[in-house]
Amino acid sequence: MTTQDPNRHVTVSCAPAGKDLLFLHLSGTEELGRLSEWRLDLLSMRNDLQAADLLGHDISIALALPGDGERQFNGIVTVFRIVAPGDGTRNRMARYEAVVRPRLWLLTRASHSRFFYETSVLDIVTRVLQDYNIDVSNKCQASYPPMQHCAQYRETDFAFVSRLMEHEGIYYYFEHKAGKHTLVLTDSSDVHGPIDHYPSISYDAWHEPSNEKECIYAWSSGAELQTGKYEVNEYDFEKPSSSNQQGLLSRATRPKVYDPPVYTMQEHLSGHVQSGDGDRYAKVGVEIHQARNDSISGRSSARGIWPGGQFKLEGHACDAQNHDYLVVSAAYEINSDVYASTVRHDPSLPFFDCAFTALRKENHFRTERLTPQPVVAGPQTAVVVGPDGEEILTDKYGRIKVQFHWEQFAPPADADARMKRCWVRVSQSWAGKRWGTFFVPRIGQEVIVDFVEGNPDRPLVTGCVYNANTMPPYDLPANQALSTLKSNSTKGGGGFNEMRFDDDKGDEQLFFHAEKDHETWVKNDMLSNVGNDRHLKVTGNEFVAVTGARHDAVTGDQNAQVDGNASLKVAQKLQEKVGMDYAIDAGMNIHIKAGMNIVFEAGASITLKAGGAFVVVGPVSVAVSGTPILLNSGGSAGSGSGSSPTAPSAPKDADDGTKKIKS
Q: Which NCBIfam families match (predicted)?
């Protein structure tokens, strides 16, 4: 049995209930850039309407307008309850309460932790809304560049998109037609037009609200003291010189000043790097305050008033008030015009009453930035990622890419798609102009990530930690006294460079390991003191070049063994002094050759011996023995072959720090 009366001024339509719901009362609010909420009192001859059957379904409340036409309040049922049963007759109907909100409200029921890469604000909002079957109309006029990294972190989808739009100066309102509501996105007041059937509304301060005449019966207009200038700044690490002192500064001043002197609001942004972005954010900031410079409110019985519509005020005694206005917010009270027999009816209640706020048409509306930026409470860990087959991924700043543990969507299998994530700066213990310490975390390592000012859009790697897949270099706790700086050869591993400290008492050690070359470059002195023994073992060749003098002092013995040839070439003098014995033993020949003189001098005697013959020169005599002894009797003297020492090979220069640096 249908209880809907086609002649009623307010009708309710909700598919699961058919035409069995009757309107009794509506109270609620809606506002530009905010969720609307309407509370309904409904009647029905049915006692069996279940919340489970209506929750989430579309509902439409149609309000008849004087003359022809209607105004709709559309949304979905978010709360439904029975508050009084009926007896199945019109004299006592069941009474229900419902809360109606726009489909956009569903975004408050889900939260995510994820990020968007190289995506504009509008594209992000559109992608989020796609999951909720929301009709959207984009009327934004500005263009929005892609953001390299935009994180949604432990916040509802609604808080996320609200925060982004508020910051960019985008707001929304709803258009209600044909039982549906469309979410309209805009960044300009130019998209608003006159209210259908109400392009102008008269002011009548003496008229009590009633159903007979629609007018504005209360009007308040003034101004509030507000900020007149807005400044934003930011530090850009790619432009550090221009970021010094005041940072990347952008300013905007509202064009109309009500309250000199003009006060300035300053904001340190968390991420913009382009000056154009700063200018836009400053402009939005000052327009937010400018929109609140006007303080206009009123009450009306005109049924068509809705946030997003414009009207012209007429008939005000102060002619300056007869102006065009944009409705910003509205609070409604709508009461049923019948049912006095079924519920307590107060005939003094107006059929339609609306309290509203407005803005002069020429002023730009901006939603106030009320949605807080999520704050990461402390450091987190993440995993370094990179292309398949690679071990290191970095850019010219030493930045890396990481996967956070809170990412709800696993990285895609496609390597290119997996790399669509932001570059993250890496903290170093020392960072100067082409000097300092430098380590690049490698793919697969677990790193510590902090966030600048707790902002999830600004990650910063501050260190690395071991885990079950990447264990410490040595078994623990067996080697707990070891401290090390150990690398891993890339690609493929299997080799390493290391500087290791062993602090085990009585067995301390400083250990160096070079997987291939070890090169040292000292521009001045190099001093080394060894308290005990020094051992040097060279498997191949050793080359030493001294451009100045060389001094060797050995307190004890010096032993040298050359298994091949030994060569010594002295450009000027060679002097040797032996305290006791000097012995030379050659397996075959000894040749001594002088360009001028050879002098042999001995304190006791000099002996020359060859075979059985000899010559002994003593202090008082010379003894010659030979068989025979030939004096001036022919024969010939042998000649020394001279010396031909092999020149040493020059050693290679050590790396001065530039040899292996790639440009």
A: vgr_GE, VI_Rhs_Vgr
